[in-house]
Specification:
The structure is a single chain. This protein is α/β, with parallel strands linked by helices. It has one domain (3-136): Rossmann fold (3-Layer(aba) Sandwich). Helices cover 56% and strands 12% of the residues. The protein is built from seven helices and five strands. The protein is globular.
Amino acid sequence: MGSVVVDASAALSWVLPGEDDQRVVELRDRAVHQPGMTLLVPPIFWYEVANALWVAVHRQRIPSDVAEEALGVLLDFLFEEWDLDATDCLRTALRQDVCAYDAAYLQVAVDTGSALWTTDRRLAMAGEQLGIETEPHKPA
């Protein structure tokens, strides 16, 4: 596997306390140890991650220092941003009936022929409809 698209839900599950799903841990380990693997993300990725961490702090799920540490760990993963065409993103959102944020991950996967790593069931289902391989969440 040369490249994979990682959505914010999957990336956050690598660093947030209590997210100990074995399938997600295996993906994280592959990302770290597989030579030549490129982790692709759309430009919206970092804002989604930051917002999710803010929500976790705001809801008192984690303290702010844990949020900052989690972000630092993710920054060390060296994700590669893939630039997108907004029109393609909108068309994918409309066609797949997903928000534009989710469509961005789908569009990167389509543009690059990459698999999609997500823990979001709805996003995984939309990816499967487009012929995108999804992990760890396989739609039923």
